[in-house]
Fold these 2 entries.
Entry 1:
Amino acid sequence: MHFVNKWLCSCTVLLFLLSGAATSYATESEDSVKVAIIGKLAKFVSGNTPSDHHFTIAVLNNPFGTLPDKILQRKMIHKYPVNIRYIQSLKQLKNAQVLYVPKMNHRAMKKLLQTVRGKKVLTISDSRGFAQRGGMIQLYRKAQNMRLKINLHAAQQAGLRIRSSLLKIADIVEGDVL
Amino acid sequence: MNLKVTALLLTLACWLAPVAWAESPDMSDVSLENLLNTDMELKADVGSRSGERPLLDAMAPVDVVTAKQIEQTGLHALTDVLRYYIAGFNSPETSVADGSDHVRAFTLRGMAPDQVLVLVNGKRLHSGALLHVNGVIGRGSSGVDINTIALGAIDRIEVLRDGAAAQYGSDAIAGVINIVLKGSGYGNRISTSAGIHGKGDGARFRASTFLSMPLRYDGFVNATLDADRQQRTSRGGLDRRLAVPRVDTHVGLPQATNYRAVVNAEMPLANDLMPFMTLMVNKRNSRASAFYRPPSINSSPLFPQGFLPQIDAAITDYHASAGIKGEWGNGLAWELTHTYGYNDFGFQVSNSMNFSLAGASPTQFDNGGLRFIQQTTNLDIKKQLGAWDLAAGLEQRLESYRIRAGEPASYNGTATQGFAGFTTTNAVRGSRRNHAFYADIAYHHAAGLSLDGALRSERYSDFGTANTMKLAGSYTLTDGVLFRSGISSGFRAPSLSQIYYSQTSSFVDTATNTLVTQGTFRPSDPLAIALGAKKLQAEKSRHFTLGMVYQPSRLSSLTVDYFLTQVNDRIMLSNDLAGSTLAQAAVLAANNVAKARFFTNSLNTLTQGVDVRLNHELPLAQRNSINVGLWFHYNRNRVSHFIDPLLTQAQLLDQVDRLENGQPKTAWRILGQYRHQPWLLTVNLNRYGAYRQVIGNQAYAFNPKWTTDMDIHYDWNSDIELAIGGNNVFGTVPNRWKGLSGDFYGYNGIKPYSRYSPFGYSGAYYYLRASIGF
């Protein structure tokens, strides 16, 4: 029993001593991480320069609540202030540089991707199989961490360039022909 | 400083510490690489038909054990992993208890093994064929043998600590364990570990390979192969029946070899259809023993020096599940699955004899076996309509149970010493089918209110209908404060083993010099009916939970959950009826039976308690951290009413005391982890509360004990991991029987420790572990 007491005491003291040492991030909600990653990904992509002095991230059928505003509003991407636009239809996509696509079935996904085809819009989704179904960047969960899949061909077809530093930390996949 | 004060200080430290860093760092200022390395909240699928939900938002308490955590234990069996992480999960290591030595029973909240439902990827996992009939924790039940599953195949284990029969059907009374297998995104890996107990025995070696083949649209085929060999440990006392006492009976872990294979696959098609399948195979050979037979009871020339009967178990287990799921254009998701479960338990006894056959007796016997098969077909649909989640489904289940007789020499006359073979009268084939319908509606309001209601109706071909319901809700009072509560009803169908099991053997009545029979009889046996047995009915349960979640920051969480479970018509194995009344004596004498026992709906029980979980993370610079978890469980089980006159407090101190006091009422887990890249140090302190075991008519108490597990893990690079560690590193063993002296059970007997010990009695185990990704 004596060693148990000693161990508990040590833990207690250690916690107090280290109370000023914290610097960074711990367990986060999945949605927070996704939104932050969406904002980061835009910085690794060029070729979609805004024409209206705002870098617009369009969130279709917003599943994130107020997180995009909290995390991305008042930030800068490529020296442009970020504008979050919550949309319900692709008709509201005008002048957006990034489009987040929520989870949806294959038919709806295919139709959506065909609609944005040729537009200089970076498409990002956490839908299963998104990158191989013709999307550009897919977020997926592996254990407790988020990972990326990139369909480089789809990005290139839209005239977007993705920095090699992003390609190094993502899985590159080949997509379907839309 | 005493323990309570220290624990209080530790709690306060955890609690106050977040004040310094309650503010989250600005997520948009974190680099992409660090975002990808950020651990996200744990989610669980179990307990709701609405899909995965964050643990701390759940309407009922759920624990999750991740693949990383499983690996860090250095353990080889899933029962040990869950005992490591889940306060209130109990899985004693028994020995000299026939089949129970080979299949570890486990319990939640001090209830019975068959009151826990186990799922694999959300699909029901069949129970084992073995019925625990000796005086072990779980006596009278057939639980699921979760040690059939290769640890390397598991992504996470979700433990729902609440009744959920309205969602999943029979057995979900003490809780539900959902084992989620690894899916897409995992790389190939070879792992190996080797270890030995502190006393130099019980060496163990395990090798495991995980292979993953990615398919299109995030599909995958994952295969896991696992081989595990365990040498026995020996912790028995001296056999004082011998002229020169020595240790002759094997008391400790059995010698066992396990081969496990798991294939898990999902194959998304170009449309919205996705076929999927899971196959799990386990082949186990295990050897334990009965008590030593000294020369004084053996006049046969076969073993003039005495002999130790060895009981071998050959266990074969399959779980195969295949199905297809999809989503229609209107958002209606559907899933059709068929699951086949098979468990076969073969008994062989060697180094033994049948006294009736004297010198002509064989020394090796086929003693027969048990088999259980379960086939389940499910059709599930669900749809989200705004804030509403709707789900419904149909289930059909076919179950069959078989006892096959051993060779005649194993049961004729006085039968095999050590374990009597199943006779042709015991041999049986039984089956039943049931159909079920369920509906589940959940509502999530933006103001932080969530409600869930479920109804389920089942019809069994043998005992009739069971209707159950569940209402649960949670309310987020403010950011970080959530209250949750639920009421539900449940049931447990009598298992086929409880309905059909019988094992009888004979011995020579020295008074009459004739062979008489004793053993377990089916409730439908005319003898049992004459003694008062009735057709078994389902156990019925009612549940209430009330809890709260407090998250002062993203670094800390505290959950406190009270639970109350009432089980009526609980099925128990009666005591040995040996003719204590004239009517009984007449029935027994007319059938030439000395003692008989059978299953009855005997009593009602009330279980209540509390679960507390405090988790805290202290992030340090350069992605280092300290994690502390403090988990406490308390349960109190008591018999509230005796239904059957065959089973009363006075008549059956042993069974009632086992139910009320045989398992620890309290359990503590204090887990500390210090990560200093590339090192990870883990220390896990476990406190097991007091418990009792009855021998004769006297209850013997066993003290609470602390055990300590340690693991030092080193990431050589992103692919190679090495670890050294130990479980119960200080070699804690339970105290010996206090005040009990005896040849078999006693501080100076062959079995100096109680078989109820929640952490066994084999002492320290040290291991080395390596893992290579490729």
Entry 2:
Amino acid sequence: MRKALLVLLVSGSALFSGGTTAQRREMPPAHRRNFVACPIVRDTKTLPCWLAEYEGELYFLGLQGSSASEFYPPQLNHEVLVEGTVTNDPRICGGIPLKPLRISVLPELNRACNTLLPAEDGLEAPAAVARRFSEDLRKPGTDISQREFIIPFDFDSDYLTFHTTRIVGEAARIAKAVNVAKIEVRGYRATTWLSNGKQFIETETIAAQRANKVGEILVGLGLPATAVTVISKNEPEPCDGVTDTDKRRVTVRLFTP
Amino acid sequence: MRLALLAGLLGVLLFSRARQDVIGQQTEPLRWIEAGAGGTLPAEMYFHNADGKLGVLLTGGPLEMKGHAFFEPQGINPRGCVTCHQPSNAMSVSVEAIRERWRVTNGEDPIFAAVDGSNNPKLPQALASSHSLLLNRGLFRVGLPWPPADKTVKPEFIIEVVRDPTGVNLDDTYGLKGANPTISVFRRPRLSANLKYVLSPDDVFNIKTGTLMAIDPETGKPASMNMMADARHLTLRQQANGAYRDHQEGRQGSLRREALEQIVAFEQQVYLAQSHDRWGGSLVEANGPLGLGPRALADGKIHVLANNNRDPVFRLFDAWKTPATMAKELTDAQREFRAPVARGNDVFMFRQFWIRDAAHINSIGLGNPIKRTCATCHNTQMTGQDLAPGWVDVGTVNYPTWTELPVFSDKAELPVFKLTCDKGAAPHPYLGRVIYTNDPGRALITGKCTDIGSIVMGQFRGLAARAPYFSNGSAKNLRELVDFYDRRFDMKLTEQEKVDLVNFLSVL
């Protein structure tokens, strides 16, 4: 696993930094687990579990679901960035649960990430959360008074998931309903403070990619291009090891006449 | 010895005769419809094939073909739409029928037109070898501009021709270095039937890309993007005009308005499915499976996500699970056939395996691998396409899972391209940035590295009437199709499961 991490830090398109002297002395809070590793999939009698190992300990990431699930599982052949908080909850599939948890599939191939474990007695998956049908998720549900929308992204990704497309859709719906005068779309890139003290910085162009994509969607949904301003902040957001996941984002602000 | 020889010869003759009767080549006047021949197309048609009969239904009633744009040449060659979309071949065209046309016409049938019915328009057209991809695999040449005609597309990769047995991609007129740089790929014609399902749009957002769906310019609403192998045309009108220019060599830019509307109206009323078993019995039975036969297609609901056990993709086959619940008038042979069909449906719907390294399935949030079933991807009720835009790199055209012989073998038939992606582009999720392929698929339209080798999945209907399968015609029969998936995903299907799946697919 550690070898895989090193490979990523050398070859990945994202930038690895040792950080400042002060940052090297400090570390993210002890209860945080921010690391890059090869994911592990464990078969069970029901749904496969996803796990990752860090410093000799196994962590539970989540269960296989569907594209409408909140949790999008990792991918073999790719490393995964895990950012989570250790809980005292019972182990699941042999791993310590992390809550809250965000994972990001890193884009570059790593064929060393190839571990599929067979089902094993005593390592059962929990019952899956009842599936919400996509039709329900497609219904508008945002308060019309809302004027700011935050669209989160995975590390180094501009891919909008089933859920995040809904946020953009709601922003467009309300913008039309309130006859918006101006829409400001602002993209950000972020840094993750890994548990080993190192910093993992997103690629330079990702803030602009995210903002442009969201801006294009808003125009595609019928908002006038002249009303949409797209800005990207290319300086990476500072990291604290706790809220780093929230900083990989695009904000959409609506200004009414 | 002579007696044995005579008996053998008699057996061959009897078999040939029986085969001819089953195929119905001599007895079905509509088995091959020549463009411009005229005549009436009945509202219900049945055509023999090796697994029984195909049923074709025109919901608009009988149709006069004389003067109808679908059945008359529109361009400068003598082809009509019908040339490659034959009712007897499930509105596609089978290799068996193509070979028969070669035999009957000595290679003069318009289907062999040099423009795309041969491996390379510059080859000597009288030779069968110049049409080997059509004769052996049912493949037509599709020449696409590279870079894409849409100038807003910025290609993320460069294309090199590693080798091309057809010579067309290296040709100074038709190739990548010609005056109009073109990349030629070879694909099967898709069904022009059951189109209300195929054209049914999904959501405003395209789950494959996380962006908006393409918009149908005629309705202003999202398009399904499930019609073409590479989703390059969104509407029937676009497709008809494209076929007029590319396949019929039309020189007027687009079809006449009346002709266009006639073609589109016709295509929207054609429904087809296998209708009878090989003993002549109807697959549509009182209290039998609800999803069989062309009427079920005509009457079915569109856009139903059916990867569930309540109302599965091809509906329930419970009535065929045991002899006790089957129709009483069935013979023993028919009963023995129906039970494996029902089991095959269960394999299709519920037999789990690890779906792995399939771009646009595993890479869109489902995880890699996922332990699911055939119906996870083939999830649309009645057709087995994807409800979302269905382009997937299932592995048929990209090295190393492709169906081609090794790159440096002398016997491979298809071109091999090397695609090298920009360092800044998102790589193909499972093949990286250098990819060898026979057909870049959707990537020839989007220019995206992630789309290399992704092909829009086709319908599962009328399969028995239109072998071979896959976009590159690499599965000669349903068993080869099943074997590909078994190998590709290490499904570990038993022999019984394979047979059951083949039987199941043959009744669709």
